[in-house]
Amino acid sequence: MIPQAQHRDFLDPQMLVRLSSIPLYSRQAMLGNVSGMHASPHRGSSVEFAEYRRYVPGDDLRRLDWRAYGRSDRFYVKEFEADTNLRCHLILDTSGSMGYGSTAATKLSFARRIIATLAHLAIQQGDAAGLTGIGETITETLPPRRTPSHLRVMFDVLQNIRPGGGTQLVQRIHEFADTTRQRALVVIVSDLFVEPAELRRAIDHLRFCKHDVAAFHLIDREEIDFTFSRPTRFVDMESDEYVFADPNDIAPQYHRAMTEYLTSIRQMMLESAVDYHRVITDQDVEIVLRRFLVGRAGGRQAVAETSPIDSSSVGGVG
Amino acid sequence: MTFLQPWMLWALPLVALPIIIHLINQRRFQTTPWAAMSFLLAANRMSRGYAKLRRYLILAARTLVVAGLIFAVARPLSSGWLGTTIGSRVDTTLILLDRSPSMGQITPGGRTKLETLTRRLVESLNTIRSDRYVWIDTNQDQILELENPEQLIELSAADTDAATTDTADLLETAAKYIRENQPGSVDCWIVSDLRRSDWNVDSGRWNAINRSLRQISQPVRFHLLTDAASAPDNRSLRVQSATVASAANGSDPAEASGAGELRLSFTIRQVGVSNNESARRELPIELDLNGARSKFNVRQTGDLTEINQWAVPLDAGQRTGWGKLSIPADTNAADDEYYFVYGSPVIRKTIVVTEDAVDGDTETARPLMLAAGISTTPEIRCESVAMTPNDLAKADLDDVALVLWTGPLPPKSTQALLDPFLRRGGRLICFAPDSGGDEDLGISWAGLSWGEALRHESDVQIGRWIGDHDLLSGVRSGASLPVGDLKIRWHRPVLGDQIGLAHLPDGTPIIARSIADTPGVYFIGTAVAGDQSSLARDGVVLYALIQRALADGADTLGLTQQLTAGQNQSGTDTWQRLTGPNVGRSTTYSLHRGVYQDDDRFIAINRGESEDIEATVSNDQLDHIFAGLRYDRIENVGGSTDSLIQEVWRTFLVLMMIAFAAEALLCLPRIRRTSAPPSGGRVTGGPSRGPGSDPKGATA
């Protein structure tokens, strides 16, 4: 159960209960400083057998496998996987465009639910979770911690985040990669309205630093369907500039541009081995997260395309 | 474009309504905050050209819809040159029909020109509408107010007369009607095939008529509905003379006993056939002689076939009678038959009035007496006598065919003595007097008078003359009279309302015919003396014109009269039709071809000689006639009787519907990709490239 103090409107206790049965796994080895449930590149004392290696002087004699000695007359040391904890960095795009929502729910509110749930799940299973808000600058930074009190702080920050201004998502991800040297699961929750090529360089930067990268690409239904009919003055949520347009005139071109963009982003994510999830904000957040968690628990490099319109389509991202 | 409800056009500014609504709508936009701005900007850039075009097309379509509706309600008339000439509803429509024989030419539609044009006019008038329709017919001297245009057909106005139409007279009467009745606005429709014989464009009357029409204060528009196409493959038959001769020796049958024979001279003129073989074929001629019909063939010899003295045996003792020659029907039935009467030839008497000597043995009178006294054929006797003006009062003019006046014009009292003679059909030729100074300059006769005498230092030749009809027409073979060879050294210009038959190079009329009520009066502006002209020395022209005038005058004498339709319109009440088309009433018999009997007189009525000439009025001449007037010419082609003017509101409604459909199509929302690839996982469309620019950067 969630402590009463941690109750927030973006957190659904029932959903947490249902999702808590699915662990949040990293897809690659982590370098935690405490024991945990995640694979470590180091050999440790877990129950998972890793390999045999030849004995070298200095090794602990207790770890010699006498049975192997009996069979082969040679000294072998039996090594086990080291389990460690996970550092989960949750990156939230706080730019003005995240405040858009054709219904009551905005992209930011949807992102809050994803981040809060993931943070809760991570801390609940003993991992550390941190939060970084990115707008034009890095607006909020909470380093990963494992304590439940940290969760409350994180929720407070999430609750106080307001969308606004432009974004320098690409630059801030580079900064993040530069400053975060320890391996971590980096979860980016954004509408990704950036140049795909530049975003790719930022993602590659993260991957170079051995981070496990996942991305929730939030898109509002209206942004895809573009079902306006009357002449409309569209005001940019980031710069307050506006464009007057007749949707009937520009809808085909808009759809074409949007399709090209989404195709490009998805292709880029595939090539960069990012656990990529495109999410329409009218989807059920539990389904989205369940697919995310199940996909990772399966140890597969897969991306669950979580659209309820075409839920069967699942594409791997490596 | 002209409209029957032009006031509806005041609503035309409503065509701006769609544009105004569009502009207002643009001001009533909704404002939406938007995140995916970069794609919007890209789409806006990509669709700018088409979107603008589409918007303009929609606006144009909507404007067309409103305009089409307004135009349709305004009841537009057929567009083009005709539509621009027809105005709104007029007060009075005057209808002037050319009903001359040439209008009997069959059109491709199987109807005569007159019927075709009249039906077309009726259809058009039914469309245009007018408060009053007035048909003016000067041949029958009537002005009829019609209840509706169809009455023109019911009244047989679409039937041709045998009389030549005096178009100038029609227009003069129209002008008089307008002045007397003061209608608000007038449309004057003239239906004609533009034959020169009907228009007399050389007449000096046209200037006066033009002035008179221009002085009318009411707005008058003249519409000339014409079909001047020549008759293809048409022949015209004309009897030149029908005389009775003794079968034995050809002497005067009146003095001989026993059977005589009818000597017929006639011509067949072929028009519009270039093939010589067809022009030379045998042509069947039907002769109806006193009701007995017979046929004989003649061989055509080209464009003009002339048969002289064709002998037809007569019963013993038969000295007078009537008949008709006809050829097979062709494109104009009006000139395929010719009626004639025959009888003992009358003596063609001429009186030469001269002040010098009663015996006429003077330089002035003698050439005239010789020209009038020598007959063209042995069967006809010609006599000429000379007398002074004083003796003329005591002379018996009943059997005189021609009077040649050589002195100054007489006073009115003397002129009155000749009125019965002229009304009977006698001919009068006045030569310019060279004596008596200029004291008679103020006197006129039949509307003509003399100008001041002018002597030329050298001979002046006649510059132009009318050589296709009247006294100076060419000979039957087609050759012209040598009028141009005449030399004039002294002349007096002919003044007054006239038809100039010959003019000097400076345009001065030298031979003219009066157009006054008294027909058959000619003025020759020189004399026959050797020092004044070569009329006597080169006597061919003088002889021809005197003999022609004499023949015309003699036709009205005796028990048989050969008349041109429309020339003698009085006293026809007692006429009985013997043969001819059963048209008209007894009061109009003189207008219709046929043979009539008045007591013991036989009268043949035929078309005038000028009707056989196909020359038409030129555009320049028409422009001169209607100079300064609102005039348009409507050329009728083919035999269609459809209305010249049609309401085209249906066309505008169709255009409106098309504009409606176009607007609806343009306004249809574009078919969007319902697969919504971006929202699903299957992103299939589009090349794999970015949106073109940094979306964030674009909106930053």
TrEMBL record, chain A:
This is DUF58 domain-containing protein. InterPro entries: DUF58 (IPR002881), vWFA_dom_sf (IPR036465). It comes from Crateriforma conspicua. Residues 51-256 form the DUF58 domain. It holds the Pfam family DUF58. Gene3D superfamilies: von Willebrand factor, type A domain. The lineage of its organism: Bacteria, Pseudomonadati, Planctomycetota, Planctomycetia, Planctomycetales.
